[in-house]
Every structure is written in C-alpha cells, then in structure tokens.
Design a protein that fits this description.
InterPro entries: HRDC-like_sf, RNA_pol_Rpb4/RPC9_core, Rpb4/RPC9, Rpb4/RPC9_sf, RPC9. Belongs to the eukaryotic RPC9 RNA polymerase subunit family. Keywords: Cell membrane, DNA-directed RNA polymerase, Membrane, Nucleus, Transcription. GO terms for molecular function: nucleotide binding. It is found in: Cell membrane; Nucleus. The chain is an all-alpha fold and 131 residues long. The chain has two domains: 39 residues, no CATH class; 77 residues, Up-down Bundle (Growth Hormone, Chain: A), CATH 1.20.1250.40. It is built from eight helices and no strands. Helix 1 packs across helix 2 and helix 3 packs antiparallel against helix 7. The longest helix has 14 residues. 16% of the residues are buried.
C-alpha cells in the first residue's frame, strides 16, 4: 500500500455538516446511494452538538485549550462530543491522570461550556459527577 497524500486532515462534525449542507443546496437532486448517504448523514449530524457550533466558537475553544497540550485527536473528540464531566475527559485524554490536574480538568470543562453553551449537563451527568 502506498500513501498518496500524507497531508490529509481529520474533519470535525461541524465541517462535515457545513459541507454536506452546501452540497445539498448547490447541486441538483441526486439519485440513488449518494442522495441517501447525504440525507442520512445530515439527519444524524443535525441531532449532535455540531448543529449549534460556529466556526468562531470552535477556533476560540481550540485557542483556549492550547496551554493543555492536548493531541489533535483529543481536541477533535472534544469538539465533536463536548465533555460535561471529568469522567468524560478521562476517557478522551490519554493518560489524563498524569497529564492533567483536577483543576486543569475543571478549567477544560469551563472552557468547553463557555464556547458550547448548548451542551448542557443532563440530570444523569450530574448524578455521575456527584458519585
């Protein structure tokens, strides 16, 4: 197997949603599998936190998270599925116990909630945090 393009990057759910909406709006109606895939993907993404995100909120969030030296993949996961509890951060950040203090985890959560206020704690999440 040969690497054709070593400069490819991962896309956030927000970027995929924006692109698919442009494709849907600009092109004539597709028929067949492409239309189905576009429709189903749009339907899925419109039920995720990315539907309320903006390019500016994502950029600002990434800037504020820079001091924590998170990997690109960790940042992408935090953008796609913003954490609301310390436990979620432990799942996202590799070796989080060694890399982050409890204060840093709380600061990350406050940055996430500042830039993505639409992501709210559910009663279930609050119960998990109090345990």
């Amino acid at each position: 197997m040969e690497i054709v393009n070593s400069n490819c990057a991962s896309l956030s759910n927000y970027e995929v949603l924006e692109h698919l909406q442009k494709v849907k709006d600009c092109r004539p109606k597709h028929k067949g599998q492409l239309a189905t895939i576009t429709y189903e993907t749009l339907r899925y993404l419109e039920n995720t936190p990315c539907k309320d995100q903006t390019e500016e909120s994502i950029k600002e969030c990434i800037k504020e998270l820079a001091p924590f030296k998170l990997h690109k993949t960790e940042l992408l996961i935090m953008i796609n599925s913003p954490p609301v509890t310390p436990l979620e951060i432990q799942f996202i950040v590799e070796e989080s116990e060694e890399r982050l203090t409890e204060d840093q985890v709380q600061e990350i959560l406050s940055i996430i909630s500042k830039h993505f206020p639409h992501v709210q704690k559910t009663p279930q999440n609050e119960d998990e945090q109090s345990e």
